[in-house]
Amino acid sequence: MNIPFRVGHGVDVHALVEGRPCIIGGVHIPFELGLDGHSDA
Questions:
Q1: Domain spans in the chain, listed from the N-terminal domain onward
Q2: Please, which pLDDT band fits residue 41 given cuts at 50, 70 and 90?
Q3: Does 40 have pLDDT greater than 70?
Q4: Do 17 and 34 meet the contact criterion of CB atoms below 8 Å apart?
Q5: DSSP letter (8 states) at residue 36
Q6: Is the CA virtual torsion 13, 30, 39, 10 positive or negative?
Q7: Gap between the Cα atoms of 36 and 27, Å rounded
Q8: Which of 20, 26, 31, 36 could staple 15 via S-S, CB 3.0–4.6 A?
């Protein structure tokens, strides 16, 4: 049996900091802190 896709599970952690927007999964969350990091944060 050959399945054409794979399923995985991952974890990504970022600190909360002042002065950055809080965007999770492309959704802007109204919050006074945002995610510290780059690319997906």
A1: 10-41
A2: low
A3: no
A4: yes
A5: -
A6: positive
A7: 16
A8: 36
Residue with tokens 């896709």: 5
Q: Tokens in use for 28?
A: 């802007």
Q: For residues 17 and 9, what is the distance between their CA atoms, to the nearest angstrom? A: 26
- Structure tokens belonging to residue 22: 């809080």
Q: What pTM was computed for the model?
A: 0.57
> How many whole angstroms separate alpha carbon 29 and alpha carbon 10?
22
Exposure class string for 15-25: b at 16+ Cβ within 10 A, else e = eeeeeeeeeee
Identify the pLDDT of residue 30.
97
